[in-house]
Amino acid sequence: MIEEWNLAELTAGAKVGSILVIPMLWNAENTALEKTARKCGVHTADISANVQEQFNRANGAIADCWRIDAKAVREGVLHRKTGTALVLDADPQSKMELGDIVIYRFNTGVAFACLVVTYSRMELLEKICHPGYAEGDCIFCFENEHEPVLLERQLALWLRGYGLETFYPGDALFLEAYVYSLAVAKHRFAALEQMQQITFNMHLMAALEEPASDTSEEDVDYVYAVKDQLKNSYRWGCCVSSQTISYITADEQQDFEAELEMQIQDGLPIVCLALYEKYTCLYYGRAALGCVFLQKSVRKIVRSAAGMVFVFIAAADQNRCRRQHHKPGSEHPEQIPLHCIAARKHLVNGQQ
């Protein structure tokens, strides 16, 4: 069956990239970000209006959002203005490039540095992130140069200048990142199984065109577009796991930048809100263990936790979700139900 689909044809020329959502802690006394980055609001329709308001209010917001463009990221992290493309393990065919970074800082002290990376082939992501290992072993170099670039260490140092510290000890930022991947193909998909196979390959960080399988990695969910009855095909689908979202979409123009921007505007806030609950609980648990018997410190943690807006995940029926968020005859990008991703997150407004 898979051979009949011809995955190579479906994914030929597909453009790929990822947003590495890196958990951090931030220092409120550092104001460097306010002086150099562009502040962004949260305006996605995939979050209820009252939760959006808690992001965008002038005073007492639960978080703020900042964006630094790719040029400034490359110059700050790589210390050069041109020739910033990197090759992996001295292979000139294995290229990657740093893009924009979006930073969410929550009032609980947790932050997320969301770094865009693009690369020439999907399987290179496994080298970049090196999941399942205690440390990465990929060697980054500039094109036509042999001196290694200590990419994660340089990124950690640069973020430190903005008051952001690694959530876990060390500089292995990519190992701890939640990976939000995107592939843009030219052709639409005739069957759900096609999207499932391609996005599962992406989840495994394997080549798009070769059918991959791993029985230990099948605890995943799939979300997909409603079938266009006139075109008799699907436009997009994604595979969701506890550490990745892998998203494939069809666009005749293969405008990767436009599709990526849509994910940053609509999907990324959802991911950060879900991770915010997880990492805030981890942070408070760690802080409480470190200050046992210190009554004042415990009270401080409790007061801070009282202002936390929790994100609850409800396993809503997938077909019901698809019907609710589809307008007949239309498949515009803004109607993609990204809040259905990861078991359709329902955001609950917390009173502060």
Task: Summarize the structure in words.
Helix content is 33%, strand content 25%. The chain has twelve helices and 15 strands. A hairpin with a 3-residue loop joins strand 12 (236-240) and strand 13. The longest helix is centred in the C-terminal third of the chain and has 35 residues, at 256-290.
Question: How would you summarize what this structure contains?
Answer:
The protein is of the alpha+beta class.
Characterize the largest beta sheet: strand count, sense, and whether it forms a barrel: 13 strands, mixed
Alpha-carbon distance between the termini? 54 Å
Number of helices: 12
Mean of pLDDT: 80
| H/E series | HHEHEHEHEEEHEEHEEHEEEHHEHHE
Shape: globular
Indicate the proportion of strand residues: 25-35%
Descriptive keywords:
single chain; 352 residues; alpha+beta; 13-stranded mixed β-sheet; two-stranded antiparallel ribbon; 15 strands; disordered C terminus
Task: Itemize the secondary structure elements and their pairings.
Blueprint: H1 2-5, H2 7-11, E1 15-26, H3 32-36, E2 38-40, H4 49-56, E3 63-68, H5 70-78, E4 86-88, E5 91-106, E6 110-119, H6 124-129, E7 140-142, E8 148-149, H7 151-160, E9 164-166, E10 178-185, H8 192-203, E11 221-224, E12 236-240, E13 244-250, H9 256-290, H10 295-306, E14 311-313, H11 318-324, H12 341-344, E15 345-347
Parallel strand pairs: 10-13
Antiparallel strand pairs: 1-6, 1-9, 1-10, 2-3, 3-5, 4-5, 4-7, 5-6, 7-8, 11-12, 12-13, 14-15
Helix pairs in contact: 9-10
